[in-house]
Amino acid sequence: MKKIAFVCLLPMITFASMVRAGEGAKAAVQAAAPFMDDLTFAMVRLDLQRIDLSAVRERLQGLGMPKKELAGVFGVIESWRRSFLEAQGKEVIVLLNWADPLDAVVVLIPPQQKSDRFALVQAMEKLPGFKAQEAGGVILGSNYPSLLRKRQGQAPPELLAALAAVDGTVLQVVVVPPPPLRRAFEEMVPRFPKELGSGSTAPLTRGIKWLAAGLELDKKLSVRLVLQASDAAAAQEVLKLVGLMYQAAGQLREMKELLPDFAKLAPMLTPKVEGDRLTLAVGDKEMSQVLFPLAAKVQVNAKRAQSSNNLKQIALAMHGYHDVKKSFPPSASYGKGKALLSWRVHLLPFLDQAALYQEFKLDEPWDSPHNKKLIAKMPAVFRSPFQTRPEDGKTMYLVPIGPSTIFPGTKGISVRDITDGTSNTILVVEASEAQAVYWTQPQDFRVDPKDPARGLFVPVLNGTNVAFADGSVRFVSHAVTAEGLYAMFTRNGGDVIPE
Questions:
Q1: Of the residues 297, 318, 351, which one is the last residue of a structural domain?
Q2: Which of 169, 203, 353, 425 makes a 20 to 30 Å CA pair with 126?
Q3: CA distance 74 to 292
């Protein structure tokens, strides 16, 4: 289901883990029905009055999420929640429709006797990119104004039964695949791949009526999943498919890296068949075993993306320097035959840091009494998210030093001197933290032709991000050969560059 992931676009949905679905499921369906049609496939119910943000925050911190970032996110969420509650808002419903744009979210607030409808519209419009209006007593909001309308359809008859299956849990998500979607899936994927038995997909598309998920979160986390099949035989077919999916997933290299104990977890994550239903209850222990590595992976990916962005800015600044000086900067400036300041200092005017550049005494070394005071002013672009001590003024962003690199000595190299091609030659690397230097210090990554990877790779990444001379940023895996890596460091070796 392509849009389930977009529930995460609305922070209140992402962190609404303390929402408790009350007894008003029928009223919620009635309120939402005018805004549903035969392509509405998912519904999420939230009760803003029962969100315990402190419990959610504590749980996420327990999973290793950084406290500083959580504090900022939860501050925004609490502000939104306060606006809704002050307007006497209570329940929030999110609808996802297959025909809507990929990132579209429709949110509605059912009628409440004491609610301030005008204030609720204003509160809804505090959400990023949202417009809102009242429609028949319902407050309707969306990040696409064209979706602020009633639809020609009705709520799926299975919706109420699906909500009832997870009633009482803190967060309810219900998926009812509409008939057009089932048919489209059968046409696009008539048979499963070999890993899943090569059989027809019809038992899946025709055998599943709906899927409901309910989440509980206070000091512990638990999830209840219920899948309603068309009959007992269809339920058995779905269970068989789940087993094949787990078996195939366990063979994937990515799964082995992410969840080394997946084979042990699979039995605990396998649903039980109860007539024509499959049910799965996952407790705190099992959820932690799954979420801890997932949370760690999310953090690593976020840091990797930030580092890639830093390298991109540095590479663009290098080209800005080249446009003015007709060459890339040398690795350091020199005075009386002695290295004074790093290329990072001389790149400042091209990173919108001209004022900081003017504070340096360019004829003095980096550790002179005056220049040494400026180490603490290191721009954020030189701070790697993988550094454990980013406050010490050191950087992991270095240029490769060596006779055949872009930084061979005291003079800058121009693009025309890179005969191997700018897209094949490394300009800047993110080295391991052990290689970090003070950002003003004229010291960088000296390439060893026999072991060019020595000191390069970031352990948690099993590789590292590098910026090439064409301005692109790519990931170099630790599996690269020494010959292939050295070929990427040289500018004029005529080497064969690996994929």
A1: 297
A2: 169
A3: 20
Contact 17, 23 (CB under 8 A): no
Residue 174 pairs with which residues in a beta bridge? 43, 212
13 phi and psi angles, rounded to 5 deg: -80, -45
Q: How many domains does the chain have?
A: 2
Domain that holds residue 110: 4-297
Structure tokens at 28: 């919620």
Task: Mark out the alpha helices in 326-420 (DSSP H runs).
Answer: 343-346, 354-359, 369-372
Token pair for 392: 């010490």
User: Closest by alpha carbon to 145, among 125, 135, 134, 130?
Assistant: 130
More confident residue, 283 or 123: 123
Residue showing tokens 């599996």: 479
**Residue 429: strand pairing partners:** 398, 466
Give the residue-averaged pLDDT of 284-297: 72
Sign of CA dihedral 262, 263, 268, 273: positive
Tokens of 450: 């026999």
Please give the full DSSP string across 54-105, using - where no structure is assigned.
HHHHHHHHHTT--HHHHHHHHHHHHHHHHHHHHTT--EEEEEEETTS-TT--
Kind and range of the H or E run holding 464: strand 463-468
Summarised one tens digit per residue, pLDDT across range 458-468 is 887 888 999 99
For residues 499 and 490, give the distance between their C-alpha atoms in angstroms, rounded to a whole number: 16
- Tell me, what amino acid is at 441? Q
Residue 437 vs residues 147, 347, 387, 428, 475: alpha-carbon distances, Å:
53, 16, 12, 14, 22
Which residues touch 220 (CB under 8 Å, ≥6 apart)?
Answer: 283, 284
Gap between the Cα atoms of 299 and 371, Å rounded: 35
Q: Are residues 136 and 243 in the same domain?
A: yes
Predicted structure pTM score: 0.63
| DSSP H stretches of helix in 114-170 | 117-124, 159-165
To 10 degrees, what angle do helices 53-62 and 67-86 make?
A: 160
Say whether both 329 and 289 belong to one domain: no
Q: Where is the domain boundary, 243, 262, 297? A: 297
